[in-house]
Design a protein that fits this description.
alpha/beta; Rossmann fold; Alpha-Beta Plaits; six-stranded mixed β-sheet; four-stranded antiparallel β-sheet; 12 helices; 14 strands; elongated
């Protein structure tokens, strides 16, 4: 470790104690970034507390990955600042970057290396001495339940196994913060559950702080707190249960051959403001079970294909706050090159 890194590390140790009093490990202040004429981030400000799982939720193009790239030190913002333990984050500060682990949206394992070799390579890149790197690789393989596959090349592994290995590699150097960009995209339900069981286990064991981006409501539910982004702007920030409580009622979904006409009738006859989502009408209503019989009786037989009732999800919250669904992609800028402004 060179003198500059030692100096920064010593300074950070003192700052950690001061920052512990407020609980904020990461702080983003008025972060903005443009890609040509498009504003990808517009004055984003938030704080991530030590030891929490914090999520950025929004559709593709909402600004999540831009924020992720800035926090991961691979993209410079046009304006604003990012603080880690009270110290401004810099692309050129290796001591700060060494305290973070990163799981990118696209897989980055070397298919021609074994699981153990991939972990050793990651440890070496973070400067761990060989004995320590070897010990940490074995510890992580055990934690993610892949010790019996350690000597296998990862080529041909399932998506869930590969993602767990990438998680282990991001944490092999014992960082304070784990950054993940759409970590479970493409995983099936079983792999999703196993991945998150490992993340939460690692958080419990080490006090890890996690910041992730996602467009999946079920993944957003894993977070302690959640920032909802739309068109580069912060729309809401709260715990998932508190955000869901903003719905104020059940969600009734109606399928019909002429949804726009049914929607108009609901507005005129029942004073219900329905939203059209994927060809279905969604209505928010307290005690929705009491309304459903009235709705069914109001239409001739066969006019409605189906009427269902459920509790609101974070996807419903997003729709209510923004007026469009999480599946409504927005234009996404080209990936940035490391260390260069796009």
């Amino acid at each position: 470790m060179d003198a500059a890194v030692k100096t920064t590390s010593a300074a950070l140790a003192g700052e950690d104690a001061a920052q512990a009093a407020t609980g904020a490990l990461l702080k983003v202040s008025d972060l903005s970034r443009r890609f040509g004429s498009r504003l990808a981030l517009a004055g984003l400000s938030l704080e991530v507390r030590s030891g929490e799982i914090f999520g950025l939720l929004g559709p593709n193009g909402a600004g999540k990955s831009t924020a992720f790239q800035i926090l991961a030190c691979i993209l410079r913002p046009d304006a604003g600042r990012v603080y880690f333990n009270g110290r401004e984050l810099s692309l050129d500060d290796p001591a700060l970057r060494a305290r973070m682990g990163v799981v990118f949206q696209r897989g980055s394992l070397d298919d021609q290396l074994t699981a153990r070799e991939n972990l050793l390579l990651g440890a070496t890149l973070y400067g761990l001495p060989r004995p320590r790197a070897t010990a940490r690789a074995e510890e992580m393989l055990q934690l993610i339940e892949l010790s019996d596959r350690a000597a296998e090349k990862v080529e041909g592994w399932s998506g869930g196994m590969r993602r767990r290995l990438e998680l282990a590699r991001a944490l092999v150097h014992q960082p304070q913060v784990l950054l993940m960009d759409e970590p479970t995209q493409g995983l099936d339900e079983a792999s999703f559950r196993k991945f998150w069981a490992h993340v939460k286990s690692l958080r419990k064991v080490s006090g890890l702080t996690v910041l992730l981006t996602t467009h999946r409501p079920e993944e957003a539910e894993q977070c302690d707190r959640l920032a909802i982004l739309d068109a580069g702007r912060l729309v809401a920030l709260d715990s998932p249960p508190a955000l869901a409580a903003r719905m104020g009622g059940d969600v009734i979904t109606i399928e019909a051959e002429a949804p726009e006409e049914i929607r108009r009738i609901l507005r005129d006859r029942f004073q219900l403001a329905g939203a059209l989502v994927d060809g279905r009408i969604q209505v928010e209503r307290r005690e929705g079970h009491a309304l459903i019989p009235r709705l069914v009786e109001a239409f001739p037989a066969g006019r409605l294909n189906s009427v269902s009732l459920r509790r609101p999800t974070l996807a419903d919250v997003f729709l209510k706050l923004t007026g469009h669904s999480l599946g409504a992609d927005q234009p996404t800028p080209q990936p940035a090159r490391k260390g260069r402004a796009a």
